Amino acid sequence: KMHNSVLVVLLSLACAHEGLAFAPYLTGSLAQARVACTFGKARAFAASSISGRLATVAPLRSRAQRRRTSGVCSLTAMFTGIVEEMGSVLALKEEEMAAWDSPGKTVKGVTLTLAAETVLEGAYEGCSIAVNGVCLTVTNFDKKFFTVGVAPETLRLTNLGDLISGSPVNLERAAANDGRNSGHMVQGHVDNVGIIEEKWSDNESLFIKVKAPKELMKYIVPKGFIAIDGTSLTVCKVNFEECWFTFMLIDYTQKHIVVPGKAVGDKVNLEVDVVSKYVERSLGNIVERLAKIEDALGLSVDAYVYTGATSQAGEDAIAAK
């Protein structure tokens, strides 16, 4: 506990020096508070073993700035992760398109045409619609269908290239700035794909285990947000060493999204919570200074590496030192 307190104080001082506000606070059960604030060298500080403390980091603002933003939500989501309808693929095809830089020249491009209804209410050319969690721009539409362009980078990082005629897809319109967000802040910028490894039922609930790319695992934490094929879901269990996590779907959700219909071995689009990336970037500015302070005082946070095992392991390692 003494080491925990010292490290929190050191982080507070280092954050203050970098113009950041560090606010540790208690969240109840020791085992429930888990945060994956990543410090280089794959070290997780303020994780499950830090006696229930949860760290939030935000830029320091003046009193005048706080007044100007009082009552205004400064973070608005492009999407919410609440699927509005399941559409279906009409066509995914490669075709010749006019090159933007050379009049008369054509280049190959991919277009995706989908059948839909709800998401076309209020649609216009150039509007954004999330397809399986991928933010795409509408280039043509009617009352019953719409077409979007799919860039090569999108095909490389998502499961859209695997779609065939008749494939079901999750669809969501961009969120209104003044609307409710019943999910979480989803950008529609898919990080990569995961592979379904296992599915099982727990009464009416459906559990799914997903293998994820190693580079994304540091952003996936128990009870944290993640978007799966554009659906805002809560992470259940995480195994950082084997690079997998699980999530659960209630009966209602199972009937309104495409994921339950997928088989073991199928791909799902993954978008991790972007807030964790901003936290990592902010804390990265103080890692080197914090490491020097630790070395000078003979302290280390290496024992706080969160492996998905019991949080008591970190406490025992610190006590042993």
Poorly predicted runs of 5 or more residues: 21-77, 303-311
What Rg do the Cα atoms give?
A: 22 Å
Average of per-residue pLDDT values: 78
What class do helices, strands and sheet pairing give?
Answer: alpha+beta
Strand order of the largest sheet: 5-6-9-8-7-10
Profile the largest sheet. Answer: 6 strands, antiparallel, barrel
**C-alpha geometry:** globular
The total strand number stands at 16
How much helicity do the residues have? 10-25%
Distance between the termini: 12 Å
Question: What is the count of DSSP helices, taking H or I runs of 4+ residues?
Answer: 7
The proportion of strand residues reads 25-35%
Along the chain, the helix and strand elements come as HEEEEHEEEEEHEEEEEEHEHHH
